[in-house]
């Protein structure tokens, strides 16, 4: 994203970002568990706060993440809680990345793209970016984005 400032003394996006965005923000790892399929009777995983553990007698130590969302979490909720701040940083001029990783059928495409009635993270981010750029009277924006799906099956 390239930003061109207007006359000196104008309000810049950095001054209007609701969160203290810094280029030193660390990488965050969030987990979103998918709902059970019709042929599944129980989940193999147990969620406790920001930890995910296997539900078996031979379970490993729990895995700890920045946040774990259960299968009932909606993409809009995740966007508002996590990705909205990432988008604010992009408006402020920082580069950002968001990606989904997981096995086939784990919900990556649903999280990223969604459906018309339940939009994914990408449509919500693009909408917010375009609305923020259009609303700005102090800066001109040039947006560049890429989207890549890699399959290794």
Question: Could you please describe the fold and organization of this structure?
Answer:
There is one protein chain. It is built from four helices and seven strands, in the order βαβββββαααβ. Helices cover 27% and strands 16% of the residues. α2 (75-91) crosses α4 (121-135). By secondary structure, the chain is α+β, with helices and mostly antiparallel strands. Residues 1-19 have low confidence and may be disordered. The strands form three sheets. It has a three-stranded antiparallel beta sheet, with no helix packed on it. The chain has a two-stranded antiparallel ribbon with strand order 1-7.
Keywords for this structure?
three-stranded antiparallel sheet, single chain, two-stranded antiparallel ribbon, alpha+beta, disordered N terminus
Distance between the termini: 33 Å
**Large-scale geometry:** elongated
- What is the H/E string? EHEEEEEHHHE
**Share of residues in helices:** 25-40%
Query: Mean pLDDT score, rounded?
Result: 80
Question: How is the largest sheet built, in terms of strand order?
Answer: 3-4-5
The fraction of residues in strands falls at 15-25%
Radius of gyration: 19 Å
Q: Which structural class is indicated by helix and strand composition?
A: alpha+beta
Main sheet summary? 3 strands, antiparallel
Q: Uncertain spans, ≥5 residues at pLDDT below 50?
A: 1-19
Number of strands: 7
Number of helices: 4
